[in-house]
Amino acid sequence: MYWRRIYAYDARKDDVNVPAPTPTDQPAEEFSVEKILDKRSRNGKVEYLLKWKGYNDEDNTWEPEENLDCPDLIAAYESQFETSLRDTEDKNKIKIISEDSRARGFDRGLEPHKILGATDASGELMFLMLWKKCKEADLVPASQVNVRCPEIVINYYENKKIWHTKQTFKLCDLSVLRISFSTTVSPSGRVLILSANE
C-alpha cells in the first residue's frame, strides 16, 4: 500500500491546505521542483514558492519546508538570497556614504539668498537655505546662519506673518508697521528678540 499526498490550493488564502494522507494502491505521485522562487514565513513555518518542472508559472505553489525533499535547491536559494542581500546592503552603504560626503551648506562655497523655512525636528534648529545661482536648498544649522548672515535671518523673521504670544496667535502685516528691535543669538543658535519699539 502506498500513501499519496494531495495538495489543494486555496486562492483566497494564498496558502496550501494539506489534507491527511490517503491510502491508495498506486505509487505516490511525485512532482519535481525546477526552481525555488521565493520564501516566506506563515504561522511560524517557513514556506517556499516553487516552480514545478513541466508546469507553467500559474501552477507555482507555496509549500511548507517540511514537505520538500530538495535540500540542494533550498541551499542554492538560501545562498543566492544571502549574496543578493549583501549586495543590496553594500549598494545602500555606498549611496549613503556618497550622499554624506557631498558638501552641504556654506561648505559648498555658495552665497546665501534667503531662508525658506525652519525646523527643529532633529533637536537642533535648522534653516532651509536657498543659495544664489543654485536651485538646490540645504538644511543648515541655525548657529552657522546666525553668525554668517544675520541679516538674512532677521529678514526671514520679519517676513514671517504669524507671531506667537502666550494667549493668541496674531496675524501681522509687517510692511505697515515701523518696528525697530535688537536681536541676539542664544548659545543654542536661536535668534532672540530682546526689545521691540513701534
Describe, in plain words, how this protein is organized in 3D.
- The protein is α+β, with helices and mostly antiparallel strands and about 200 residues long.
- The chain folds into two domains: about 1-100, OB fold (Dihydrolipoamide Acetyltransferase, E2P), CATH 2.40.50; about 105-195, OB fold (Dihydrolipoamide Acetyltransferase, E2P).
- It contains three helices and 14 strands.
- The strands form six sheets. The protein has a three-stranded antiparallel beta sheet with strand order 5-6-7, covered by helices on one side. The protein has a three-stranded antiparallel beta sheet with strand order 8-9-10.
- β5 and β6 form a beta hairpin.
- About 10% of the residues are buried.
- Keywords: Chromatin regulator, Nucleus, Repeat, Transcription, Transcription regulation.
